Amino acid sequence: MNDEIQTFIEFLLDTETTSETLFNQAITEKQELYNNVRNGSIFKKIVDQKFQQWKIYY
Predict the structure, then answer these.
(1) Could you name the domain of life of the organism this protein comes from (predicted)?
(2) Confidence check: pLDDT of 26 > 80
């Protein structure tokens, strides 16, 4: 499950290839990933890691 969530977040953050339409479509199709309470902490952890990477990069 972690890999699927990681891949989904990477897709959403890829602003060069992900249009607004594709972003909205992906959110709609993957609702079960982020609506599941159990996955909430996984999402938070992965997003926090991304923010830390961006802080280091920028």
Answers:
(1) Eukaryota
(2) yes
